[in-house]
Amino acid sequence: MDDIELARHLAAGAARILMDLRAAGTHEGPILDQKALGAEGDLRANAWLMAEIAAHRPDDGVLSEETQDTPERLGKSRVWIIDPLDGTREYGEGRSDWAVHVGLAVDGTAALGAVALPGMDLLLDSWAPLPLPAMAAVPRLLVSRTRPAHEAVEVAKVLGGELVPMGSAGAKAMAVVRGEAEIYLHSGGQYEWDNCAPVAVAAAAGLHVSRIDGSPLVYNNRDTYLPDLLICRREWASRVLGAVAAIEA
User: Fold this and answer.
1) Cβ-count burial of 55 within 10 angstroms (0-12 exposed, 13-18 middle, 19+ buried)?
2) Which tens digit of pLDDT belongs to each residue from 75-112?
3) Taking the CB of residue 141, how many other CB atoms lie within 10 A of it?
4) Which site in 3, 55, 202, 226 is 20 to 30 Å from 215, CA atoms measured?
5) Is 71 helix (H, G, I), strand (E, B) or coil?
6) HSE on the CB side for 239, CA within 13 Å?
């Protein structure tokens, strides 16, 4: 398998594990509650992903939300950045707005990625991006279901936009790729695994991707915290970045 085939294989395999577990709803007997289901899904999907990467790309680095990080990856040019289950809460609740992220960063750039949306039976990747649909007349901004980012709320006011609550980061990013919204602006804090794969897919589709100050997203850092993110239609990028700058001035 080449890299994109491997990314798709990994995302699809983890998706099957998670869907099978949720369908069964049990773990060696007792029924799992929502929180326990999410924890078990994370554990199983991560174990499979780590084993597959080790088997297929033993010389590459790996950064996973669910595996203890080590400095070894910092000396690698190629690093797989994965989130076995993005949206644990949504997964446990039986919703569809959760994802599996498999990204490959090369020299700090999100070079390629695959994002599975198992609850929607979809797998998007950076090799064969979907054509972008026509934009809505009123921009739709994706925000957290429970904690809408202050900047996103204020930018929506400036642009006369509509807020659209949604679950996981991957689901929101792919909603822009799929034409369900125009803007995903997040300022509540993320980590590299939350957006590496989605950023690769979004960039390949022709969307604008950056930090909310317009600076590039850089991966495989010692500190994996990424405070903010903007994925949006290119037609809106300058206005969104300008509005953020005015809000933070």
Assistant:
1) exposed
2) 999 999 999 999 999 999 999 999 999 999 999 999 99
3) 25
4) 3
5) helix
6) 16
